[in-house]
């Protein structure tokens, strides 16, 4: 063919023009809309720098200085490890974390397996009961354990002498681990039910066709398919148990752990330097676990192909019966502990005078803050839910949907994953350091801290809560956004509609169920948390969950139980409200979801 | 076509009609566009002119860069180098929102929380139009795509084919100068697909908007396009009308990708006019320029051009073959043939022949039978050996 007449060969172009074409990379013009997106991405970055990076650097720096603020290298760490009283608690914490992790994951796996893979009756009831501990501060379990197994406990005393009593030695590691397991169990169940419900029936059919024994099927199909779920659950449970403060505070007795040490150093001895040293030690294992979990999750390929057939569990008599008994036992224990707390708050003197009374709900004669503290907590949880949801959803949107500034978006993504590894106490202490400093010494210059004004206000409590629970919410938002067609933004751009308009008219309405879920999660967790706020709340702003700690400390345990019940009732109330709201959204405004 | 242009050019003998390339009147000009993803070259020096009102199909195997080229035209990807000129204006540096196009995706990408009418009106609401004008325009578009009553329905209440029509209406709402379709039919059932195919062509004829459609379905491209752009590995291999692409593929790749093609290995026996391949001895009607005697070649012939005869007529273009099996395909039979090898150490050559239902009535097709096969010399294409088949 006589090609030459069609397209001139490259040599026909002047060498100058060719060189220009080869070197000049085409860049699209930047519009005002792009500037807006860039500005928002910059703001998100700034927010994470101020709330995560700088406070963490502060606490790290503090652990390398002495009380006068002079750099001393690793001296504090050397002191720590050469003081047996201190460094014992590092191993105590590791022991508690690992033991609680193993027990919670094993029990959680059994429970999740029963829910997803067997045909037992009453699954939804079991699931509701298993989730109840999420709506209570971790202290509640500990308080209830003392009412049951403590020195004056119901079981220790043999049910008012009816039965021979026995003492399981609740004060110390036994009590801490039981309390932790109750506290971590629902988290393990949540993660593992999701992992187990993503099963491909075809694999099981193939396994049956090959005449594999049920045990072989379990080890060769079930376990491998959920190993990343197990790793995730292990990470979450370890982090919770390793860093929790409430349970060891109440039942720990003389058994010291890192979390209670930090509290003692900071609140008891005002030793901020040692407090931050212990904080870093608390942080290291959780960050390590976080990195391991990240590596594992990245290896996870899409196990579930688009054509996977959901598994329909078939009834098997013996398995179903034993699983039913197992679930019933677990639920009984959860209900027994929570029920004990409720009951203890409504009787005169546990366990001697079991006549009913509401007097423990009158907080006027006890310390802790009473009803004002309760309302402060509700306000704080409400602000956290509203502001946190807005920030999380917008930043997840920017990361998922804006096509520019790749590096900035992946940095923001990483920084948004990090808070899950930060113990609440560490966040609290880091915030004290960062926000309490009137001015920074920056290369010899005095730069006043513009955020100093936030110290001791509601705002700092809200920020601490948002960061403490940031990662789970961010992941919820980005999963919901990922499920939307990637071309919505493209189509809008082709019609000249700016991204913010599409965000408001399409993304938010379509993701509304996820948005509500995020808000609910923020509210409930802000309501029950102790660790993130215990260093930060000012005297003028007492909080309900902290009041539980203080009342328990002061020996008015029944009032502490009463306050816990109020917190639980509020959280569960909000959860029910969320259920009703999503239900009515699904049936009304989201008519489009149905065919 | 840049893979081995000189060799192809020298042996191609079929007449070539040059594509319209009057640069001055072109609506869309793509000039030397290159796009890389990291080290991977997705588009290598692509140039293309599109006339106003044309219906163009980008055709090629998966991963050849069709979507990437479409996205560069829309500004959804930034090319590394090169220009996109639309309607005489260099739009290379304009973001998508400043360009003039409507786009439809395989996934429809309809907003699920808005009704069909709201979807179509989505872009109109940012224009300076009264509510009434918007409503009127929406109804016009609904009528245009043949769904006058679908306005109040949500996407989930519409079938796949209906959703795609709404997506089309939405893309046309702002009366764009250029309509881009990225595999708009691939998510649909075969039946709906053929229906919508004819409707899109009819719609294009009615409103005359310059249209580019990406597809990897050759049948779709052949039936819909004014011109087809065949792509392979980030390059344009051939541009031409469907007939040109089908009848005169310029490389074995195109020949193989569009339609079915038999390839017979052979060599040139008399410079410029005679080739021998798989035992056939063909006198070519057109001279092959500059190909020396002894050059190894591939002789290509479409199954429908192969003739089966009751008895051999004794000419060089006819041979005896064994009929291996027959596949009934409705309007015609596809026959698998085995040509015994002239020498014992080479395996027999296999080829396909399509026999019309009419012809099959005259000559019964029996598996295992010996038949005479004719390869008409005026219908073959000759490619140099070693081209990417
Ligand atoms: N964002 C990207 N990053 C890296 N590689 C990409 C990207 N987009 C496309 N590619 C690569 O560029 C090549 C061309 O992609 P393109 O989507 O244009 O193919 P296509 O011809 O449309 O194929 P298909 O028929 O499968 O849609 C592919 O190999 C693809 O993997
Ligand atoms: Mg494509």
Order of helices and strands of chain A: HHHHHHHHHHHHHHHEEHHHEEHHHHHHH
| Structural domains of chain B: how many | 2
Poorly predicted ranges of chain B: 1-23
Dominant shape of chain A? globular
> Distance N terminus to C terminus of chain B?
13 Å
Q: What is the number of E strands of chain A?
A: 4
Order of strands across the widest beta sheet of chain A?
A: 1-2
Report strand % of chain A.
Answer: under 5%
Helix percent of chain B reads 10-25%
Report the total helices of chain B: 10
Greatest interface by residues involved: A-B, 40 and 51 residues
- Helix/strand/pairing class of chain A, anyone? mainly alpha
Which stretches of chain A are poorly predicted, pLDDT < 50 over at least 5 residues?
1-21
**Small molecules bound in the structure, each named once:** adenosine-5'-triphosphate, magnesium ion
- The secondary structure category of chain B is alpha+beta
Major sheet details of chain A: 2 strands, antiparallel
Structure description:
The complex is a heterodimer of chains A (595) and B (389). Chain A is mostly helical and 595 residues long. Chain A has 25 helices and four strands. In chain A, the strands form two sheets. In chain A, strands 1-2 form a two-stranded antiparallel ribbon. In chain A, strands 3-4 form a two-stranded antiparallel ribbon. Chain A is globular and about 90 Å long. Chain B has 389 residues and is α+β, with helices and mostly antiparallel strands. In chain B, α4 packs across α5. Chain B is elongated, with a radius of gyration of 25 Å. Residues 1-23 of chain B have low confidence and may be disordered. Chains A and B meet through α21 and α22 of A and α1, β4 and β6 of B. Residues 66-67, 183, 214 of chain B line the site of magnesium ion.
């Amino acid at each position: 063919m006589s090609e030459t007449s069609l397209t001139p060969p490259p040599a026909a172009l002047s060498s100058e023009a060719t060189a220009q074409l080869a070197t000049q990379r085409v860049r699209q013009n930047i519009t005002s809309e792009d500037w807006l997106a860039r500005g928002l991405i910059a703001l998100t970055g700034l927010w994470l720098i101020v709330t995560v990076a700088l406070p963490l650097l502060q606490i790290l720096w503090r652990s390398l200085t002495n009380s006068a603020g002079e750099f001393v290298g690793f001296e504090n760490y050397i002191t720590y490890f050469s003081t047996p009283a201190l460094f014992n608690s590092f191993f105590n914490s590791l022991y508690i974390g690992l033991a609680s992790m193993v027990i919670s994951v094993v029990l959680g796996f059994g429970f999740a397996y029963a829910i997803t893979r067997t045909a037992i009756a009453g699954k939804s009831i079991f699931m509701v009961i298993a989730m109840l501990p999420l709506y209570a501060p971790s202290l509640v379990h500990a308080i209830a354990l003392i009412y049951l197994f403590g020195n004056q406990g119901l079981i220790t005393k043999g049910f008012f002498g009816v039965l021979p009593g026995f003492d399981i030695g609740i004060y110390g590691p036994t009590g801490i681990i039981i309390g932790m397991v109750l506290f971590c169990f629902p988290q393990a169940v949540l993660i593992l039910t999701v992992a187990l419900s993503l099963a491909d029936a075809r694999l099981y059919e193939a396994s049956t066709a090959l005449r594999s024994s049920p045990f072989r099927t379990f080890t060769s199909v079930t376990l491998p398919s959920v190993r990343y779920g197990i790793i995730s659950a292990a990470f979450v449970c370890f982090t919770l148990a390793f860093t929790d403060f409430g349970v060891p505070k109440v039942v720990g007795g003389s058994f010291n752990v890192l979390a209670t040490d930090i509290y003692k150093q900071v609140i008891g001895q005002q030793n901020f330097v040692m407090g931050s040293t212990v904080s870093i030690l608390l942080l290291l294992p959780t960050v390590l676990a976080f990195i391991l979990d990240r590596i594992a999750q990245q290896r996870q390929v899409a196990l579930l192909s688009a054509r996977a057939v959901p598994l329909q569990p078939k009834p098997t008599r013996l398995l179903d019966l034993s699983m039913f008994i197992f679930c019933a036992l677990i639920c009984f224990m959860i209900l027994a502990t929570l029920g004990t707390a409720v009951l203890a708050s409504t009787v005169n003197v546990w366990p001697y005078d079991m006549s009913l009374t509401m007097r423990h709900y009158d907080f006027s004669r006890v310390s802790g803050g009473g009803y004002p503290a309760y309302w402060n907590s509700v306000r704080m949880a409400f602000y956290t839910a509203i502001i946190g949801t807005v920030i999380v959803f917008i930043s997840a949107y920017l990361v998922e949907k804006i096509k520019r500034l790749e590096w900035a978006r992946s940095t923001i993504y990483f920084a948004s994953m990090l808070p899950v590894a930060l113990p609440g106490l560490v966040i609290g202490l880091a915030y004290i350091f960062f926000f309490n400093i009137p001015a920074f010494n920056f290369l010899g210059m005095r730069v006043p801290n513009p955020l100093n004004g936030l110290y001791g206000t509601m705002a700092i409590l809200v920020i601490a809560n948002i960061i403490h629970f940031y990662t789970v919410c961010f992941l919820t938002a980005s999963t919901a956004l990922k499920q939307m067609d990637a071309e919505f933004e493209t189509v809008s751009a082709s019609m000249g509609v700016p991204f913010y308009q599409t965000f408001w008219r399409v993304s938010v309405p379509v993701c509304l169920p996820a948005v509500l879920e995020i808000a609910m999660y923020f509210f409930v967790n802000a309501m029950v948390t102790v660790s993130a706020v215990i260093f930060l709340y000012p005297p003028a702003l007492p909080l309900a969950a902290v009041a539980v700690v203080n009342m328990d400390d002061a020996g008015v345990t029944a009032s502490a139980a009463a306050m816990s019940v109020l917190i639980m009732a509020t959280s569960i109330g909000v959860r029910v409200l969320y259920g009703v709201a999503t239900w009515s959204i699904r049936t009304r405004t989201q008519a489009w979801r149905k065919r | 076509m840049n893979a081995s242009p000189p060799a192809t050019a020298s042996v191609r003998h079929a007449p070539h009609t040059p594509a319209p390339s009057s640069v001055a009147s072109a609506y869309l000009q793509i000039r030397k566009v290159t796009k890389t993803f990291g080290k991977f070259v997705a588009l290598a020096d692509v140039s293309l002119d599109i006339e106003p009102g044309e219906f163009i199909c980008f055709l090629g195997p998966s991963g050849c860069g069709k979507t990437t080229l479409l996205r560069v035209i829309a500004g959804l990807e930034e090319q590394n180098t090169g220009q996109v000129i639309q309607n005489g204006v260099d739009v290379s540096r304009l973001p998508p929102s400043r360009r003039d196009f409507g786009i439809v995706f395989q996934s429809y990408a309809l907003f699920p929380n808005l009704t069909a009418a709201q979807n179509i009106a989505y872009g109109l609401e940012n224009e300076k139009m009264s509510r009434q004008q918007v409503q009127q325009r929406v109804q016009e578009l609904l009528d245009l795509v043949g769904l006058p009553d679908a306005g109040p329905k949500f996407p989930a209440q519409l079938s796949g084919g209906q959703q795609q029509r709404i997506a089309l209406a939405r893309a046309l709402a702002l009366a764009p100068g250029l309509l881009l379709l990225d595999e708009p039919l691939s998510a649909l059932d075969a039946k709906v697909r053929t229906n919508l195919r004819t409707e899109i062509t009819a719609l294009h004829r009615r409103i005359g908007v310059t249209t580019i459609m990406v597809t990897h379905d050759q049948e779709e491209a052949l039936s819909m396009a004014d011109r087809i752009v065949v792509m392979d590995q980030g390059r344009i291999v051939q541009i031409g009308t469907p007939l040109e692409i089908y009848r005169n593929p310029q490389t074995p790749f195109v020949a193989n990708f569009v339609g079915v093609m038999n390839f017979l290995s052979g060599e040139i026996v008399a410079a410029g006019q005679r080739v021998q391949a798989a035992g056939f001895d063909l006198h070519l009607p057109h001279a092959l320029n500059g190909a020396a005697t002894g050059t190894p070649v591939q002789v290509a012939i479409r199954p429908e051009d192969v003739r089966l005869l009751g008895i051999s007529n004794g000419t060089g273009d006819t041979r005896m073959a064994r009929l291996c099996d027959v596949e009934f395909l409705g309007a015609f039979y596809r026959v698998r043939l085995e040509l015994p090898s002239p020498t014992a150490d080479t395996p027999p050559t296999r080829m396909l022949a399509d026999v019309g239902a009419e012809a099959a009535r005259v000559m019964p097709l029996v598996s295992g039978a010996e038949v005479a096969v004719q390869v008409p010399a005026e219908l073959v294409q000759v490619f140099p050996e070693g081209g990417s088949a």
